Amino acid sequence: MRILILEDDYIFGETLELFLTKHGYEATLVTTIEEAEEITFNQKFDLYLFDINLPDGKGLNLLEALRFAEDNTSTIFITALTDLNSMAEGFKLGAIDYIKKPFVPKELLIRIEAKFMEKNIIYGNILYNPSAKIIIKNGEPLDIGRVPTQIFARLLKKRGQIVLKEELLESLEQPSDNALRVNITKIKKKLSIEIKNIRSRGYILKEI
Length: 208
Known about the structure:
Helix 6 crosses helix 8. A 5-stranded parallel β-sheet has the order 2-1-3-6-7, sandwiched between helices. A 4-stranded antiparallel β-sheet has the order 8-9-10-11, with helices on one face. Strands 12-14-13 form a 3-stranded antiparallel β-sheet. The protein contains 8 helices and 14 strands. The longest helix is centred in the C-terminal third of the chain and has 15 residues. It starts with a strand and ends with a strand.
């Protein structure tokens, strides 16, 4: 998950950035509204963490502008004050949560995971946990490797549909058709599942 942190207190913001990175998130810190506007125009994020009051404006106004531009990225506001009017305005704009300063980074992590924890996906005798990226077969954890797991996850989420070869190749460090075929074969063998090759297009994990 890619997270943008907008926080004018650089030391505090850097602490959050390092903490979230340590826990597997791709976190980026900016300290001004102007920086946030520029980076959100050029990059896609999964979550915004916006301070409300900044030297060059308000996080609420930034979110309003982003929503006007049809950017519906989930947003959590960070605030030093319990301002009910600001909170109400934020929720109207689509904020999913507030967190009040001071707080420990662990509290933020709990809130993020509570909001974004994905549910287990059941496929026959296989259970896949998207958040932990764990495969369980017949009640036992099964490690098929990081890359095959990523490919399996993409196929599983679109089971019954063609997943384009180009999308699956994104999971490979050194993408090639041959490397993809090797990983698909490994998945089929380890999980005993049927994955159909659609020539020149991609692969399908059949619906069951």
